[in-house]
From TrEMBL:
Keyword Repeat: no
UniProt entry tagged with the keyword Transport: no
Stretches assigned to coiled coil: none
Similarity annotation: Belongs to the nuclear hormone receptor family.
Protein name (database record): Protein CBR-NHR-30
Pfam families: Hormone_recep (PF00104), zf-C4 (PF00105)
GO molecular function, one term: zinc ion binding
Ranges where the NR LBD domain occurs: 158-395
Keywords per UniProt: DNA-binding, Metal-binding, Nucleus, Receptor, Transcription, Transcription regulation, Zinc, Zinc-finger
Domain of life: Eukaryota
Domain Nuclear receptor: 1-75
PANTHER family in the cross-refs: NUCLEAR HORMONE RECEPTOR FAMILY
Amino acid sequence: SCKICDFPSHGMHFGVMTCRPCAAFFRRFVVLKLNYACLQDRERCSLNKIRRSSCRHCRFQKCLQMGMSNTALNLSKKQDPKIEPEMIIQCQAEPSTSLMPVIKLEVNRFLITFESYIFEDQLYTKSILSEIRYDNLWKDMNEIFSSGIPSTKHGHFATLSPLYRFVEGLKLVRKPQQTERIKFENRLSMNTLVPHWRAQARHTAILSMHSMAFRNIKSMADKTMIYKAVWRNIYRFERIQMSTEIFGGKCVSEKKLAISCEKAIQLDALFFDLEGVAQEKVKLSLQDYKAFAERCVEEVAKPLNELCPSIEEVAFLILNFVLHNEDTIKGEALEVCDEFRDNIADDLHKYYQDNEIVNYAQRVAKMMSIIIAMKKIHYEDLGGGFIVNTRNSEN
């Protein structure tokens, strides 16, 4: 049995016989330099009865007490080895698509492709096709969050594990993705930016409904608070990774970024055309945006391009980025997210096992480093500053 929680173990991890969720918990704690105050709860803080829902401070103390060592995680930057050949996961030439049956629907002369289960509810179709007013944005998000779509009780989605449910969401929002025919639009105006922000919000809300941690939070107020805090950078994280798939090394060397499924930008050629706005304000907004985007390229896109993650790993990265913004996740929602972390860590291990990828500890450590980099950028929120500056410049 696991020396930490007494559940069935899965082998030696960090020098101790543990289950995979406890091993993943210990890795997160060390790599992300987490620090939690003890709950001082007689039941949840007893080191003799540690469970996965126990006080996280005391759970970590039990890990140390039983002899778990962080030596394997302390990789020196100077000695950081290249990823071993057997750890490389083949990049896909085309963005991932679902294996599910596909229904094609002709809408306003455009052929839109949807997975068949989307038609369980008209709200899903509306969320993809219809144009929304900016004033009604949060109302529409709440409708998506309360829809219960896709169903977790029947159909294909209900048969999937937590990680693969989010993978399915990624496949859905990436279905319209252009690669060879993606268009560069380096001259951006408010006429292009505002609809782009609307689409971002909508797609991220749909993606969020594929996360069981998000769905299982009962309070709509908690859901909305978490979503408002992180939705922009969830979308950016996903777009940065997709940019590395589409452009490869040119994403970094030529600063090419796919900002949507149809459009891309090249940072060095980017120009803002904001009618009726003072040029100094436009220049400031452009500088803010470029500074943010260049950090994303260097600190996130570059290591992602070197890692070349599979779609399962991309799902794991995005989910962990959200789960580690813990200042927005509190109370009951925190317990839901803790259990979800263990589940997706277990799913990722099974994915590696099924694909006969044995030496993956260093790969997971690199993913955690990418999460830390994106988390820092998110907290500094240069992108949010850009949006605020742009809106203020209109007034």
